[in-house]
Amino acid sequence: MSSGPEAPDPLWYRKAIFYELSVKSFFDSNADGVGDFPGLTEKLEYLVDLGVDCLWLLPFYRSPLKDDGYDIEDYYNVHPDYGSLEDFKTFLAGAHRRGLKVIADLILNHVSDQCPWFQEARVNPKSPKRDWFVWSDTDRKYSGTRVIFLDTERSNWTWDPVAGQYFWHRFYSHQPDLNYDNPAVREEVKNVVRFWLKLGLDGFRCDAVPYLFEREGTSCENLPETHAFLKELRAMVDQEFPGRVLLAEANQWPSDVKAYFGQEDEFQMAFNFPLMPRIFMALRKEDRAAVVDIIQQTLPIPK
Question: Which residues are catalytic?
C-alpha cells in the first residue's frame, strides 16, 4: 500500500543549489531591451536543465532604480519594465510546477525617497508617517556610526528642506531609513512579507539587516533590538507560512554573523561576506593566506 506523496523537507535549503538572477537582464520577451517576467517564464526549462533548486531574484519591485532596485518605491508592485503582478504570479506558478523554489530580495532597512511613505512624512510633520523615519534637528546624533559609502556620502544624515529636518540613512542619501522603533513600521514590514508569501514565494534574502535600529553611544549595528525584531519576524513566518526560508545579508565579521541564526529563531541561512573579497585578493596576489585566515575565523554552522 502506498504511503502517499512524500512530505516536504523543511530543511530543503541546506542542500539546495541557489541561482541568483536579475529579471531585467535575464531574458527580454518583448524586444524593449529589458528582461521581464514573461521572458523569465519562457526560460524556466533552461533553468531546470542547469540543475538548480531555487531561484534568488534581485529586486523587482517598483523603484526609481537609482540603486538597481534596492531603493523601493512600492513594495506591493512589480516594476512595470519587468511586467505585471500577474506576470509574476504566472512565473512563480511555472517555477513551482517544475519543482523550483523562488526567493526574492527584501530591503528591510530603507526605502526610496520617492516612496509615498516618505513623501507624506516630509511634507506633513503631523502625519503618522512622519514617525516612520528617523529625523533630527542636528546631524551630530549617533556620531559613533560609520559611513558605509564613503565614496559618495559624507554623513549618515541629509538635510531635507521640505521637512526642515535631517533624515537618517545608512546607505545613499536618496534611501531614508525606516524607524523600527515605531510598531507601525514593524507591522507594515511584516505585512509586506505576508503579501509575497501568500502569493507563494518561498522566502526572502533580507537585505542590510544589521542596521535596523539606532542607539546613541553605539555603532548602530548588530543591536539587541535588531535581533529582537528579527526573532519577531521569524516567529510570524514560521507560524503563518511554515517551510519558508529567511536568508540574512549581514555584511559583518563571522563572529557577529553567527548571532543572526539566534537559537534557531532568526535566520535559517546567512552569507559569509568577508570570504568574497578575500577570494579575489587571493587570486590577485596568488596567495591563499587571506582565504585561509577568514575560514579559520568562521564559526561552525549552528545545528
Answer: 207, 249
Please check whether residues 85 and 129 belong to one and the same domain. Answer: no
Verify that 62 and 194 share a domain, yes or no.
Answer: yes
Q: Name the pTM for this structure.
A: 0.94
Answer yes or no: do 35 and 71 share one domain.
yes
Q: How far is CA 171 from the centre of its chain?
A: 14
Q: How many domains does the chain have?
A: 3
Q: What are the pLDDT tens digits along the chain (303 aa)?
A: 445 445 678 899 999 999 999 999 999 999 999 999 999 999 999 999 999 999 999 999 999 999 999 999 999 999 999 999 999 999 999 999 999 999 999 999 999 999 999 999 999 999 999 999 999 999 999 999 999 999 999 999 999 999 999 999 999 999 999 999 999 999 999 999 999 999 999 999 999 999 999 999 999 999 999 999 999 999 999 999 999 999 999 999 888 999 999 999 999 999 988 998 999 999 999 999 999 999 998 877 666
